[in-house]
Amino acid sequence: MTYALERRLLAEGIGTALLLATVVGSGIMAERLSGGNIALALLGNTMATGAMLIVLITVFGPLSGAHFNPAATLISALLRDISPLHSIAYVGAQGLGAVSGVWLAHAMFDEPLLQVSHHIRTGPSQWLSEGVATFGLVFVILATLRARADFIAVAVGLYITAAYWFTASTSFANPAVTLARSLSDSFAGIRPVDAPAFIAAQIAGALMAYAVCAWLLKPETEHTAP
Q1: For the chain, give me the number of helices (H) and strands (E)?
Q2: Exposed, middle or buried, 218 (CB in 10 Å: 0-12/13-18/19+)?
């Protein structure tokens, strides 16, 4: 079933808002309850985010494709699964949803709504981590869709759960998430000045995954005997 564009945009906006509310809200909760133990705080943040991704993709996948991520939308546009005009609308809905989700988390935890992050996340290792994180995310999406489409929600949720821990950047892997997290001076934040390099690395990683999958996942041509 194909849904009208306005319904798909609302699904993308709500889904991205709930994702960011989870990322930022669980980060605030984890930091408050962990007693200064950063590893414990990150674990709480990780589990909430991974679990919410599984739920959101399961719920919104049939409606909008559950992108919640401009990098995923870019790849869908390259694959011609979504038109260029609709992809721009998707990215707009994701951006508005992401910022709304951050503000919602602030409101729930009685924090000032308008904030700017001072959390430093920069340097070659961080940029490489974001490239790797986004490469892996797009690769997992494309490969799982080909191998077992009904498992995509679990695959993405598990991948992000793991990527929180094997990347130095804790795997933002999402330009909308990156921009929105620059508006939260919390455990999950990133300085606005650091966001552009993260986004550039994410886009590069997504495009690299697209190129690799275009070759790796291409069906073999059957050869007949002469």
Answers
A1: 8, 0
A2: exposed
